[in-house]
Design the sequence.
C-alpha cells in the first residue's frame, strides 16, 4: 500500500531532496513510522519525544486537518495524499 | 471626500476597475493598515499598500537597516544603512506617495503594547520574523476583532492566510503553539530568496486590499502554501478549532500573556502565565 507524503522543504534534506515520497501504513502514526524507517531522523522533526505531533506542525490527509479527524490514528489508504505543513515564522 | 485631479490620475488604473471605482478608492484613502516588520514581507507589502492609496500605514520594526537585508527588503537602500527600518520605510513610502500618512514606530510588538497598537488600524499585516511576535499578534487581533493577514517566508517557500477573528480559523487554530527555540531555523539560519519574499509580501498586500475593499474571496479558512521550487501554489482548507486557546469554545487566553519577548533565536518557549489586564488606550 502506498500513500504519497509531501515533505516540507526544510525536511527534504532528510529525504534526499525529494518533495514527495511513498510510504505505507494504515494510520498516520504507522505512516510516520514507515517514513522514519525510510528516512531516519525525520520523525523527531515532526513529533515530540512522546510521539505526539508537534504543536506548530500540522498534518493533512487529502487536505483534511487530522486534528478534526482521529488525530494520529486517522486512517490512510492507498492513493491518499498526506501533507506535512509546519508554520513559517520568517519574514 | 472627493478625489482631486491628481488623485484621479494617480489611481486611475485601479479606479477604472469596477471592483474599486471612486467609492473603493475613497474607502482606501480613509483606511489604515498596521504593517508589522519592515522586512522581506513588510517591504513589498507596504509599497503596494502605499501606492494603492491606503490612507494611513503604521510601520513597526525594531531593527536598523543592515547590508544583509538589502537583497529582499526593498524599501531600504544602501544609503540608509544603519537607519531604523521604520524610518527608512517612512522615507521611501513618503517619496512614493506623499498622500499616505506613515507612522513609523521603532520597537517590537509585545504582549504589553500589542492590543493598543492594533486598535488604531483597520487591518493588521504580520510580516514579523519570529514565532513569539506572531502568536502575540494573532492573539491581539483575535481579542480585539481585528482582521489579520498572516504571511511567512523562508528559503523559497511561504504561506499566507487571512484571519477574520471569530469568523475564520486563526493562526492558533492551525498551529496551536510556537516551537521551542531552535526547532525551526530563522531566515538568518535558513536563508531566503528575495523574490520569494516579494511573492508572499505582495500576496499579503493583495489580501489586505481585498479585506479593505470588501472585494472577492480573501484567504479565509484557506492556508495558501507557495512552493518556490516548483513555483506551485497549493491551498489547504483550515477551520476554526473548538479547542483553540484563543478563539475556541473555552479559550485559555483571554488577555495577552507576559513573558513572550520577541527575539529571533533566543525566545523562551511561550510561558503560560496570565497577567492582569493592562489599562488600554481607547
Sequence:
Amino acid at each position: 500500500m502506498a500513500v504519497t507524503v509531501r515533505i516540507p522543504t526544510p525536511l527534504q534534506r532528510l529525504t534526499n531532496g525529494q518533495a514527495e515520497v511513498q510510504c505505507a501504513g494504515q494510520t498516520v502514526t504507522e505512516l510516520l513510522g514507515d517514513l522514519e524507517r525510510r528516512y531516519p531522523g525525520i520523525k523527531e522533526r515532526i513529533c515530540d519525544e512522546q510521539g505526539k505531533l508537534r504543536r506548530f506542525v500540522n498534518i493533512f490527509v487529502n487536505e483534511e486537518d487530522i486534528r478534526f479527524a482521529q488525530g494520529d490514528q486517522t486512517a490512510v489508504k492507498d492513493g491518499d495524499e498526506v501533507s506535512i505543513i509546519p508554520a513559517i515564522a520568517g519574514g | 471626500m472627493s478625489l482631486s485631479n491628481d488623485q484621479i490620475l494617480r489611481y486611475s488604473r485601479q479606479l477604472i476597475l469596477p471592483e474599486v471605482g471612486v467609492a473603493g478608492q475613497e474607502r482606501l484613502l480613509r483606511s489604515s493598515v498596521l504593517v508589522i516588520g519592515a522586512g522581506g514581507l513588510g517591504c513589498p507589502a507596504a509599497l503596494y499598500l502605499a501606492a494603492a492609496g491606503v490612507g494611513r500605514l503604521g510601520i513597526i520594526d525594531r531593527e536598523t537597516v543592515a547590508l544583509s537585508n538589502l537583497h529582499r527588503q526593498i524599501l531600504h537602500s544602501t544609503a540608509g544603512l544603519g537607519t531604523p527600518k521604520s524610518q527608512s520605510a517612512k522615507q521611501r513610502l513618503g517619496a512614493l506617495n506623499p498622500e499616505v500618512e506613515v507612522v513609523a514606530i521603532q520597537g517590537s510588538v509585545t504582549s504589553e503594547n500589542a492590543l493598543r497598537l492594533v486598535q488604531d488600524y483597520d487591518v493588521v499585516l504580520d510580516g514579523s520574523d519570529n514565532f513569539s511576535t506572531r502568536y502575540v499578534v494573532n492573539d491581539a487581533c483575535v481579542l480585539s476583532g481585528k482582521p489579520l493577514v498572516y504571511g511567512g517566508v523562508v528559503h523559497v517557500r511561504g504561506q499566507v492566510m487571512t484571519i477574520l477573528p471569530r469568523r475564520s480559523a486563526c493562526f492558533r487554530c492551525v498551529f496551536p503553539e510556537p516551537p521551542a527555540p531552535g526547532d525551526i531555523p530563522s531566515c538568518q539560519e535558513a536563508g531566503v530568496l528575495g523574490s520569494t519574499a516579494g511573492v508572499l509580501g505582495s500576496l499579503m498586500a493583495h489580501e489586505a486590499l481585498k479585506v479593505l475593499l470588501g472585494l472577492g474571496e480573501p484567504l479565509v479558512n484557506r492556508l495558501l502554501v507557495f512552493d518556490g521550487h516548483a513555483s506551485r501554489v497549493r491551498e489547504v482548507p483550515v477551520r476554526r478549532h473548538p479547542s483553540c486557546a484563543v478563539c475556541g469554545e473555552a479559550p485559555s487566553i483571554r488577555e495577552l500573556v507576559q513573558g513572550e519577548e520577541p527575539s529571533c533565536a533566543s525566545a523562551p518557549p511561550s510561558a503560560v502565565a496570565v497577567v492582569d489586564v493592562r489599562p488600554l488606550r481607547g
